[in-house]
Amino acid sequence: MPISDNVSKRMMEGSWIRRMFEEGANLRKRYGEEKVSDLSIGNPVMEPPPEFNQEFKKLMKKPMPGMHRYMENAGYAETRAAVAVQLSHETGIKFTVNDIVMTCGAAGGLNVVLKTILNPGDEVIVFAPYFMEFGNYIDNHGGVIRVLPANEQFIPKLEALEAAVTAKTKGVIINSPNNPTGVVYSQDFVRQLGELLRRKEAQYGTQLFLISDEAYRKIIYDGLTYPPVFHHYRHSIVVASHSKDLALPGERIGYIAIHPDCSQRDELVGGFVFCNRVLGFVNAPALMQHLVRNLQHVTVSIADYQKKRDFLYGNLVNMGYSVVKPQGAFYMFPKSPLEDDVTFVNELRQWNVLVVPGRGFGMPGYFRISYCVDDRTLKVSLTGFKKAAQKFKLC
Amino acid sequence: MPISDNVSKRMMEGSWIRRMFEEGANLRKRYGEEKVSDLSIGNPVMEPPPEFNQEFKKLMKKPMPGMHRYMENAGYAETRAAVAVQLSHETGIKFTVNDIVMTCGAAGGLNVVLKTILNPGDEVIVFAPYFMEFGNYIDNHGGVIRVLPANEQFIPKLEALEAAVTAKTKGVIINSPNNPTGVVYSQDFVRQLGELLRRKEAQYGTQLFLISDEAYRKIIYDGLTYPPVFHHYRHSIVVASHSKDLALPGERIGYIAIHPDCSQRDELVGGFVFCNRVLGFVNAPALMQHLVRNLQHVTVSIADYQKKRDFLYGNLVNMGYSVVKPQGAFYMFPKSPLEDDVTFVNELRQWNVLVVPGRGFGMPGYFRISYCVDDRTLKVSLTGFKKAAQKFKLC
Q1: So what's the ipTM on this one?
Q2: Is the CA virtual torsion A314, A316, A320, A326 positive or negative?
Q3: Cβ pairs A/B, distance under 8 A
Q4: Is CB count within 10 Å lower at the N or C end of chain A?
Q5: B133: contact with A, CB 8 A cutoff
Q6: By the CB < 8 Å criterion, does B64 face chain A?
Q7: In this complex, is the C-beta atom of B372 within 8 Å of any C-beta atom belonging to chain A?
């Protein structure tokens, strides 16, 4: 076998999301675009907001000399400063350029953070259901994933965390608004989480990192305000991305932000910058750094997403599906009417509706719907969901 | 220490290139832009060629719906097809989309290849002087670097390779045109290398990969033609980049190309695609993929680079420096007049000329000049080189 044993093993486990994405392409070819409801991948159909195109035109009208050249591995100081201003505004905490490293999306950012902090065998805790790539990212850098349960509302069980943290624990990854559930963690939850981690740090004399994957932070509904982890825990590292809030997933632009008061912040940021370089990212794409600089306060239309959520949630509940109402991101994670989520997902595929089985997120018995699609596709999908509901006697 | 022991250790070793880059920024601040000759980093001062801007304007005039979205992790089929056409044209071997994976530059591509093929403890051979990041890339994925010598003309010593390959050897990295020497390996050399590797494969019953870092392939002088590794060895993987040939280093766009007849090509390409995803690159930046599609045959002005080479080489030789004449890339690797290259580099810095000590490439006693700067900077640097030459009695 020419491929490393570990890569080979992990490839076999595969990615359900990408598998369904490819299946979707096949179905579309066979039945035609308009016949297939591909709700499998979080690849927003929305175009970037108009402000993005305005920035683009401005830049093209007056290109800066050297705008495609290397810059510091941390990214342009001007872009990092703009992110710092936005985070200061959101949190009331004073961020500076020194707290920010621009990255190739959140996926790049997470790899950079994990490589920086993990010694071989260090444990990183996640809560199911979870974005399965976390497992690959942790494994890339010699870490060991520990998966803990969430409750029925998909909120991580803190008593499980209490029991699981040991001297070998290096960090906890949370993701709110959550992929795949759309759940947003409350201020109270984040506060309790911070208290627990502080207590464990004191107990073991370790530094425990709270790594908050905030790829969906700005996609949040019902007038909710997002409770910043920075308010409740000093050893917090936020990894964010403009893939979803500016609809630029293919462009690979995001950032790492560390709490300004994190102990040994400078060493950590130095590590991030080093790892950004040696992992081969080198720097976040230059042009996108120029563009997102003035767009830190801009998002795609959240109202449009909320409308889609309302439409789909309302219809599914009416059909008898059991769904926790999402308050952010663009995912829904209903209970599968069949215990075997793969069988149910295959059933939906008979109706040209593509979703991802819950086991693709470490939680069999559920399935994930990605509703960042156009309204027509959502509407068409209802027939499939309805037929399946009837077949399995939900209604 | 919050940072992993290994990252911490590797950070201490540091990157001479980046250290001098930062030193350059300091000196410029202190003495003014025009007083400092920063010849430390390969960050081309040239803007992308006019064809790049034309493509850009065309795209902006007629933006494609969904042009910033995710695509296959391997990259757009259209872009991969364009790379395949160009490689087929250059080599006379028939490449297809299935042989190409778009990457975040050559640095990203090398990490993807190494993660795909390396089991813990596998050895990868490089030849000094070499781009020191190779050591970090190999280490990222559990490999062990073995550094072998080159001859006085900076051509790898094949007898050393003959002796060094064992059953633990997984690959050999070569880099021609070479960073830091500018040397281009001859057809004869590549042929002999291919023969040696085939013989060793037969001897050990292993698959040995020739990984050819061709970031500078198109920057080649004196009417030379580039001898493709693909002509001489079937288990060849080329990693290329548009950082230098299109002057886009900050944009992170490049590719991996595998020999169409490589055994288990499909498994390997599947591994590259998987590793591109899980290392957090996900895909090469979408917009740049659209832009380089029609620019595969385009380069910056090679004549301009050759003129710079001639100017600098002629002057240095006249001053008494001992230099192997580079035939490609935009680097020169003269012998340091002092045995201690760091002392000599510090001496040059007294004259506001910044270069990188040879030990930054695993070869003390030399220094690297990067001449991808404007003519004025090169001219100003001559004073420093002259003063140093006089002080150390070269002339």
Answers
A1: 0.96
A2: negative
A3: 217
A4: C
A5: yes
A6: no
A7: no
